[in-house]
Every structure is written in C-alpha cells, then in structure tokens.
Amino acid sequence: MRVLVVEDEQLLADAVATGLRREAMAVDVVYDGAAALERIGVNDYDVVVLDRDLPLVHGDDVCRRVVELGMPTRVLMLTASGDVSDRVEGLELGADDYLPKPFAFTELTARVRALGRRTTVPLPPVLERAGIKLDPNRREVFRDGREIQLAPKEFAVLEVLMRSEGAVVSAEQLLEKAWDENTDPFTNVVRVTVMTLRRKLGEPPVIVTVPGSGYRI
C-alpha cells in the first residue's frame, strides 16, 4: 500500500511514517500543502493522511484537489479540533474519514488499512493463493499451515503479488507499491527482495519470473 503523510508537525509526521513503514506500507512524507499537491500530481497513492491545518496550501484545498482529479486515492483527514462541526465539514469536502488529534497509532493504522481496501477491487480480508494465506491486518503469512516470518518489505511485495490474483506485476509496479520515492529505481532491490521471499516461502517455488515482464503467483 502506498501512503502519503502530510503533516506540518515534523516529529509527528516522521513518527507516523515510521510506524506505517513497520506495518509494511510504502510511505512518503511532506510537511506542507504545496508539497502535497506536487506529490499527488506525480505519484499514485492509495491513502493520503492529511492534516487539515497546513502551511502554504490549506488541507481543505488539498482535499478538494484530490476530489477534483477524480483519483481513487482515499483521504484520512487529521485535525487538532474535535468539534463535530469540523468533522462534518471535513467529510463534506470529500475526505473519506476523519481522526482528531491526539490519536492512538493503532487506530490510525486500522483506518488507513480500511481506506486502502476501498481503493481496489474488493478482496477477502485474508488473501489465499497457491497454498499461501496472507492476513494484512494481523501481518501473518502461512504456507500450507506453516507460519512464515517476513520482513516488512518482503510482506509488502508478497501482498502486492497476492492482490494481483495471478496477473503479472512488473518490477516498476512493485517499486511503486512497496517502496517510497526515495528508493533508487535503478537498484536491484526488487530482484533481491523477491529472491529472499522465494527462499522463505520454500519449495516448490510459487513466485514465477516472467522474463521481460515481472513476477506473478
């Protein structure tokens, strides 16, 4: 899942991003509304975690822009105000969900995951294919009943492949969905991660390399 965190309190923004990355999400971070509009115009995000009170460009205007573009991106709006009127106003602007500060990180994560599920074709909460069961919410993976421990990026790559339901996923698509914008696209990070993932999943191999195209399960 690709997430953009937009928050002018840098310590909070970085803490949220770090926590979401530990949940196997690819996260970009910006600290003002102008930078958010720039990123949204370049990258495809599943969810934008958007502070309402932003410098340069207000969060309301960022939310309006996402709606105007007709993007499948979902918006989780944050605010220091807990007034019902503020929450209603934010939702009427086009936000998909609203979370007042301070918030519990576990709740933020659950809301981001729930919104992320709404950006794609509905799938069951537990993904199953080729003897593999992947539970995105519990961060658990089993193959033929055996639990497999995966690093966050390995889990993210496997989730993208599982969600493709047998379709080929290119290395570029994996980079877009499982890594943030700071990753050098010319590195072999995708190939190395897929190799490690294959090894951990065991025999017989379930991840197939399609020469010149990408990978599939």
Automatic annotation (TrEMBL):
Q: Name one GO cellular component term.
A: protein-DNA complex
Biological role stated in the UniProt entry: Member of the two-component regulatory system CutS/CutR, involved in the regulation of copper metabolism. CutR suppresses a defective melC1 gene, encoding a putative copper-transfer gene, probably by altering copper metabolism.
Looking up InterPro entries in the UniProt record yields: CheY-like_superfamily, OmpR/PhoB-type_DNA-bd, Sig_transdc_resp-reg_receiver, WalR-like, WH-like_DNA-bd_sf
Q: Which Pfam families match?
A: Response_reg, Trans_reg_C
Per the UniProt record, the source organism is Streptomyces genisteinicus
Positions of the DNA-binding region? 124-217
- Lineage, opening ranks: Bacteria, Bacillati, Actinomycetota, Actinomycetes, Kitasatosporales
Domain Response regulatory: start-end pairs: 2-116
Molecular-function GO terms, alphabetical: phosphorelay response regulator activity; transcription cis-regulatory region binding
Question: OmpR/PhoB-type domain: from which residue to which, for each copy?
Answer: 124-217
- What is the name listed in the Swiss-Prot or TrEMBL entry for this protein? Transcriptional regulatory protein CutR
